[in-house]
Amino acid sequence: MTTNALGIYEKALPQNMSWEDKFKLVHNLGYNFLEFSIDESNERLSRLDWSKQERAEFRQVMWATNSRINTLMLSGHRRYPLGSRDPNVRRKSLEIMQKAIDLAVDLGISNIQLAGYDVFYEPKTPQSHEFFLENLQKCVDMAAKKLVMLSIETMDDPFLNSMQKIAHVKTQIKSPWLQGYPDLGNISAWPENDVVYDLENNIEDIAAVHLKDTKRVTPTFKGQFKEVPFGDGDVDFEGCLKTLKRLDYSGSFTVEMWTESASDPIREVGKAKAFFDALFAKVGIEQEKI
Questions:
Q1: Fewer beta carbons within 10 angstroms: which end of the chain, N or C?
Q2: Which domains does the chain have, with CATH numbers?
Q3: For 55, how many CA atoms within 13 A lie in the half-sphere containing its CB?
């Protein structure tokens, strides 16, 4: 059987918990690791400026609970995009990237998931495309110096919504430190994508995989990319997981949920674990032991 690690996104867990309690909860719920969030909120962006003491304390808690973080999810670039028309925003985006790389090194995180948006709150233009590629090259150069992987996520946005598009970006920026992070929900939601074909043709560029349910984009529906309960959306998880098993994908999976403010987030995360336990068993994927 194929063996893979299964992690849980930080935003799935209750907000008001200590790091020690969060790490223990991750194991108690049956997950192998936590995915760390640096989103566009001031609170999470401030983590980039943690002091040496704060970083050391975090590491100590992580080690004491026999925990690890496989990926830092860097969605803060939605607010400060690499492709912004504003040069001050672009400078800020590069500053965020350098700080994220340094934080990853200090916390022992080897992979930074990069949101595949040229811009998010601004109009998309050929110039935003060019600014994105220009600054992505700078980001990859920064990461390579510290041996940190940057993995572009397939998005809820047409700009980079498939592994095929990420593979094309890799023809423009040639580096082993730039890879893809397919979100099975996002790929499945776009009608132009053949999910199996996309995974088959680009398996060598996949560093990690997000597990998220979505509802498809149609001519009359813009799709639903967040907060779709597992099994209620359109993602053929069994088919996707069978494909990845056949391709001998040995990287990690992360369950992506936003239940930290739910009435009972622990129950919701437990339900998600049971959902994927059943699917893993059905397709022959063995989860790494806790």
A1: N
A2: 3-282 (3.20.20.150)
A3: 17
DSSP 138: H
What is the C-alpha separation between 184 and 242, in angstroms, rounded? 13
Nearest to residue 70, comparing CAs of 26, 40, 115, 118?
Answer: 26
Block mean pLDDT (10 aa), the chain, length 290: 93 93 97 97 97 98 97 97 98 98 97 96 97 98 98 97 98 97 98 98 98 97 95 97 97 93 90 97 96
Angle, nearest 10°, between helix axes 237-246 and 265-283? Answer: 50
Please give the structure tokens belonging to residue 186: 């996002």
- Find the DSSP H helices in the chain: 19-28, 42-45, 52-64, 87-107, 126-145, 163-172, 184-189, 195-201, 237-246, 265-283
| Residues whose CB falls within 8 Å of the CB of residue 290, separated by 6 or more in sequence, listed in order | 27, 30, 31, 32
The whole-angstrom separation of Cα 113 and Cα 148 is 11
Q: 13 is written with which tokens?
A: 């867990």
Cβ atoms < 10 Å from Cβ of 15: 11
Q: β-strands 111-115, 69-74: how paired? A: parallel
User: How is residue 50 written in tokens?
Assistant: 């943690």
Distance CA 260, CA 10 (A): 8
Residue 156 dihedral angles phi and psi, to the nearest 5°: -85, 35
